[in-house]
Structures are given as structure tokens and as C-alpha cells.
Amino acid sequence: MGRINMWELKTSLTPNWVMRDEDISHTAKCCYGMLALYESTYGKCTPFIHSLAKDLGTTEEKVENCIEELIKFDYIDMKKLSKNHYEFFLEPGGIER
After folding, report:
1. Which residues fall within 8 angstroms of residue 66, CB to CB, at 6 or more apart?
2. Predicted pLDDT of residue 6
């Protein structure tokens, strides 16, 4: 069986190991799921903050807080591309340093 493309299903999926973590907020868990939905290849995605906010039904400020939280707990890495546009790596250490 091949890999499931969640974008085609129009459904986000947050892994159980993220959902079980009591240290991160429910909103950050949902944000991780949306990032996984946007994932293109090798755990990488490049959504705009306003797109994430719209898809999550929240504000850009809350999305930025969730991203900071996910980085703090080593769930994602991030590289800024331009204002409000970032490259996210769902596998920590995904950024070439």
C-alpha cells in the first residue's frame, strides 16, 4: 500500500505521539496536523501564516504562537522565506545548519 496523500482527502491528521503530549496545547496539535496536510516532500512544507490561520479558524497571531510552541518542544524546525512565509520541517533537524 502506498503513502496516503492527506491533501487529496482534504483531512488533516495529527500523529498519536503528538496528540498524547500533555506539554503542548490542543491548538498547537491542530497546527501540526495542518502542517502535515501541507507537507510536500521529506517532511517539508511552505504555507503562508494567513493560510494556516484560515484553515485553523483562528488568527495569525495564534498560529505564530503555536509555531513557537512546536519549535520549543522540538516538533518542527522553521526557516523564514519572506514576511509571513516560512519553510517548515516536520522532522526536527531538517534544516541544513
Report:
1. 25, 27, 28, 30, 31
2. 57
Say if 97 falls within a structural domain: no
- The CATH number for 58's domain is 1.10.10.10
pLDDT at 53: 95
Indicate the number of domains in the chain: 1
Q: What is the mean pLDDT of the chain?
A: 84
Provide CB contacts within 8 A for 86, sequence distance 6+: 46, 47, 49, 67, 78, 79, 80
Q: Annotate 37-49 with DSSP letters as a single string.
A: HH--BTTEE--BH
Task: Using the predicted structure, report yes or no on whether residue 93 has a pLDDT greater than 60.
Answer: no
